[in-house]
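Supplementary Note 3. Input sequence used for the single-chain structure prediction.
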Amino acid sequence: MEQCKIKILYDLNETIAADYMRTADYPWELLDGLADYIRKLGSTLDPEIYEQRSDNIWIAKSAKIAITAYLGSPLIIDEDAEIRHGAFIRGSAIVGKGAVVGNSTELKNVILFNKVQVPHYNYVGDSILGYKAHMGAGSITSNVKSDKTLVVVKDGEQEIATGRKKFGAMLGNHVEVGCNSVLNPGTVIGQESSIYPLSSVRGVVPAGSIYKNSSEIVQRRHQGEM
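The predicted structure, written as discrete structure tokens, is reproduced below.
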């Protein structure tokens, strides 16, 4: 499943966690060690740019943080990020440069690359969202199967056993997720793909696709094509 690999899904120039991302082939392999990595990275950050607010919480001085937001540790919020009223960051999170975490959005065990937007009523858990990925209002990552079995990533006849009970979604660069969609456990969405509103998505969505439903996934037309 080459298209599920980190080198295919993500631009590592667009995250403070680039060195960590290079230590694995598949992004979900990084979820177990993320909290420890955040603690290690935070202690190395430039105090001229970041301030340590409390134990294992580092926030860029240029970030905008609503006083009503909850910030759990370990946590790094990068430069010019915006954490809005009522956001709930449970911890084990990296919020990238210029990213937006909005009202009633909950994060847990995640990496948000630079410019990611999760601005309205989103749940993002055990997931990695690539550069400029956007989740529409009410869209969520479902990170535990209803039968509580371990998550398997499926792409047609191919399967990868992740060994994880908790696994949300891996979104490549520039992915657009429509409002009120559910990304089921083990979802991987390739770069430049769009998900229709009200979708229930599972498995691998190829790069450059428009996901209308499970039986209708079409390649995006590029400008100038007829």
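The two ends are 31 Å apart (CA to CA). The chain has a mean pLDDT of 96.
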